[in-house]
Amino acid sequence: MLTWSIRLNTLGSEDRRPERGRISRRGGGPDAMTGRIGGDTGDDPAAAARAAASPADPAPSTTRPGLRRSVFAGREFRSLWGAELVSAVGDQLARLALAVLVYEQTDSASWSALVYALTFLPALAGGILLGGLADRYRRRELMVAVDVVRLVLVALMALPGLPLVVLCALLVVVVLLSSVHSAAQAALLPLALPGEMYERGLAVRQITGQAVQLGAFAGGGLLLVAIAPRTALLVNAGTFLVSAVVLRAGVPARPAPERSADTDQSRGPVVRDGVAAVREIVADPARRALLALVLLVAVYVVPEAIAAPYSAAVENTPIGTGLLMAADPAGSVVGAFAFQRFVPAHLRSRLIGVLAVLAGVPLLACALHPGLWTSVALWVASGALSTAYMVQAQALFVRATPDARRGSVVGVAASCLLAAQGLTVFLGGVLADHIGPANTVAVAGTVGMALAAAAALAWRSARPRATG
Predict the structure, then answer these.
(1) Contact between 286 and 463 (Cβ < 8 Å)
(2) What is the DSSP letter of 134?
C-alpha cells in the first residue's frame, strides 16, 4: 500500500532511488509518531505534559512484576500490526511497479522519477491538512473506509491505456488518504497497548518495518520479473481489502474522541485542526524539544542516501552499495530490540539526549575514510543508537498529547519529519558532489551531534517546567 510507514523506507528505502532526494522514513510514518505511554490524560494538556516530562515516573506496567507480556497477546494490536505489515509489503511492491510501468510507457526517466516521488510527496501536506479527521470520526471506521476507497483507486490505476496524467492524479489522492489512515492507526495504538506495552509495540513496529525494507532490497526487483507491473498493482489493491477486513474484525468499535468545548473544531474545516496542532506544538516546550529530537533523525539518514557514491569511493562493487544501504535498517532492528529489552523503563527518557548525541559519533569516524566493512559497522551502530532514542522520544511526544488532539498533532509531526528527511538527503547529495561522500557523512555526524546537544538541553530544561 502507498502509505508512509515507519522509517527511512519510513523510516522505507526500498528500491533503486536517485541518490539525491531519496526519502528515508524513519519512524515510521504519521503512525510512527503516535501513541501514549500512560493512561489517558483526557484533554488537559498540562496534565499530559507533566506525564511526558517526568522520566522518574514511567507509565505503569500492565503486567505482574517479573513477567514480560508479549504485545501480540492482545487481539487489537495483532490486527493493527497485521494490517500495517500487509500495507508495508504492498507499499514496496507498488512503488517498484509504478516506476517500472511508467518507464515502460514513456521511456522517460523524468516521468518515472516524478511518479515515484508522488508515492510519498503528497504526505507532506496530507498529515497537516487531513490528519485532523482522525480526531473527528470513529477511527476504526475511518481506516476501513479509507482502505476501501484506496482499493478502488489503485485498481483503476492498473487499467490498461490509462492516461499518465490520470494515473498521477489517482496516485496523489491515494497517498493523501494514506495520511488519514496512518493518523487514525497511530491514535489507536496507545489504546491497544496501555502503559509500558506501548513502547514495546513501537519497537516491534520498527523492527517489522526495517525487516520489510531489507526484504525489499533482496527481492523486490526479482518479484517484478515474475509478475507484470499491472498485476502487481492489483495485488497492492488486494492488500487494502485484506487490511480492511483485518481491521474490521480485530479492532473493537470505539466512539469518536471526546473533545472539550474549547477544543471542539468539528464544525470548522479540517485544515484548522492542522493549524491548531502547529500552534499547540510550538507553545509547548516539552513537545517542541521532543519533536526536535525526532526530526534530528533526518540528519542521520544522510549516509544511506549517498550509499552508492560512498561505496564507489571505498570499494566499487554493487554488493558494497547494498551492504551500506542495509546497514541503517539493520542497526534500527538491533537498536529497537536492545533498548526495550535491556534498558529499564525509568532510565529510557533520561537517555534520549545522550543517545541522540552518540548516534553521530560513528558517522564522524567516516572522516578517516575507513574500508567497506568498517563503514558498514559504523553505520549499523549509528542506526541502532538513533532508533533507540527516536522510539522513546516519539512515545514521550504522544504521551504529552491529549487523545482528542492526537490525530492532528501526530499528522503535523509526521509531515515535518518527511519534509526534514527530504531536505537533508537532497543537501547531502549536493554536498557529496563537492567534498566527497565520506566527508559528507562526517559532516552529517557533526551537524547531528551539535543539533542533538541543543535539543537535549531544551528537553532537559522543559522537563522541570512541565512537571512544575
Answers:
(1) yes
(2) G
pLDDT the model gives residue 457: 95
DSSP string, 354-392: HHHHHTTHHHHGGGG---HHHHHHHHHHHHHHHHHHHHH
Q: Which residue has the cell 514495546?
A: 200
Query: Tell me, what's the pLDDT at 87?
Result: 83
Class of residue 16 by CB neighbours under 10 A (exposed 0-12, middle 13-18, buried 19+): middle
Where the chain has pLDDT below 70, the residues are 1-69, 216-222, 224, 259-267, 316-318, 464-468
Q: Which of 209, 2, 212, 251 is nearest to 123 (CA)?
A: 2
What is the pLDDT at residue 44?
47
Distances (CA, A) of 331 to 6, 296, 366, 377: 14, 17, 17, 9
Q: What are phi and psi of 9, to 5 degrees?
A: -85, -45
Phi-psi region of 40 (alpha: psi -120 to 50; beta: other; left: phi over 0): beta
Grid cell locating 392: 522513546
Q: How many other CB atoms are found less than 10 A from the CB of residue 358?
A: 18
Query: How high is the pLDDT of residue 57?
Result: 37
Nearest to 6 by CA among 309, 328, 266: 328
Query: How does pLDDT run across 423-444, given as a tens digit for each residue?
Result: 888 889 889 999 999 999 999 9
7, 418 in Cβ contact below 8 A?
Answer: no
> Which helix (H) or strand (E) covers residue 7, if one does?
strand 7-10
d(CA 183, CA 167): 25
pLDDT of residue 30: 39
DSSP for 392-421?
Answer: HHHHHHHHTS-GGGHHHHHHHHHHHHHHHH
- Which cell is 162 given? 490509462
Its pTM stands at: 0.75
Q: What are phi and psi of 462, to 5 degrees?
A: -80, -25
